[in-house]
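Troubleshooting: if your tokenizer reports a length mismatch, compare your output against this known-good record of 220 residues.
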Amino acid sequence: MAMTSDDGSGRPAEEHVWGGLTMWRAAVSEMDNNAYLLRCSSTGQLLLVDAADDAERLLRLVEGAGGDLRTVVTTHQHWDHHRALAEVVAATGASTACGADDAEGVPVPPDRLLAQGDVVQVGDVPLEVVHLRGHTPGSVALAYRDPEGPTQLFTGDSLFPGGVGNTKNPGQSFDSLIEDVTTRVFDVYDDDTVVWPGHGASTTLGAERPHLAEWRARGW
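Known-good structure output:
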């Protein structure tokens, strides 16, 4: 891991290089939202996970990574995850994607609606779409199965260190979210899978798996 100054803002971007893919994580906004920029090593094409805020900073990060932003994936419809979406898309011409059931809540009409089992490409690199219902109806995660190391999983607000995302507001469902996280994440991916959430620090499925029963029992 390297910490690199992405834009002169004084807030460094965290850089990781995997097999075929480079990732930069930039924390933006007062809510410490994570925006993840992915670059295909062979083509140089870029994909952004959550244009959460601070479009100027994200655009400088894109430019520093080569400038070829093809796609912005919004993990879910909550306002703090797409505040910079319209400006980033207008500046780059990138296509947009989000979960089908969250499309009406995203300010830029999506070019692609995502569902469980879909694949999103960043250059030559496939990312698996995991639909995780409960925090919002259409929340999605993206999984990169690194051929040279652990799977990398971008979970939005559906999975964090210490539990699943918030489900205490109207229209949310803890039962749906814990079921999907169990059957579509923990039952599918290995313990060394790295979880990159929508806010804050990363974790691994191995670190969180022993607590699944505890999460079910407490209901959050």
